[in-house]
Amino acid sequence: MVARFRYVVCDVFTDTPLTGNQLAVFTDARELEEHRLQSLAREINFSETVFVYPARGDAHARIRIFTPEVEVPFAGHPTLGAAFVLSGPLQLEVIRLETGRGIVPVLLEREGARIVFGRMEQPVPTVEPYVDEAALLAALGVGRSELPVEVYDNGLHHVFVTLSSEQEVAALKPDLGRLAADDELLGVNTIAGSGTRWKTRMFVPGGAIAEDPATGSAAGPLALHLARHGRIAFGDEIEITQGVEIGRPSKLYARVDGSAEQVERVEVGGSAVIVARGEFKL
After folding, report:
1. What are phi and psi of 199, to 5 degrees?
2. Could you confirm whether 48 is annotated as catalytic?
3. Crossing angle of helices 76-90/216-228, nearest 10°?
4. Sign, Cα dihedral of 233, 185, 67, 147
5. Catalytic residue among 31, 48, 71, 261
6. Is the pTM above the cut of 0.85?
7. What stretches in the chain show pLDDT beneath 50?
């Protein structure tokens, strides 16, 4: 017997097809065998693929997120993209998605029936210094970071290296082989900017995707990093540009409320556009 499993492809953190970060969403994974999940994520080979299940708690749906190599408890663009895909037919203003790091509510803005923007409340990350800063800077080919090099953990691990200009970020040619890859969930984020406008490139030394076009799970920690070190105020919303160098320009928005001692809320927003629908026959 051949079973059919439908999926939707959307581009996330953009409103323009064929830009932003690609995502596949299997809208009903109840009948998919467990061993198929990683194989399908590898077959599609986007940075992440989402599988949707009935919620187990106080949520509208449960999502599982896979890279081509591993399942992760939380990621930003899969959560936002899944919210766009699932909320269209349900006509929800807020969708609550159950992830491996708890329930993530996503507030949706519409023009008529069309969803045009979403804002997700992310898990509050933990923060600690990055232990091998010198090796990281050498692998990136830079001499120093303008701010402390720290790791933020909200389900994925993101380290931030702050450079002096956006041009320096754009010109980076990191030695991915030298980047520490013992942590398969680590993303290396190089950032530059001022005020509320920032540019970032995110490299994945331990993953199948060398550079990510738009990293929602890093956007909230980036806002927190900047606020903790006085580059922005808590409550300021930043605009993040990413993906230009790999031909997938993306735009993300992030803000953090509270203080360095007590983070109250981490919010990341952006758009998404559905570009394809299909099915696997297994």
Report:
1. -115, 140
2. yes
3. 120
4. positive
5. 48
6. yes
7. none
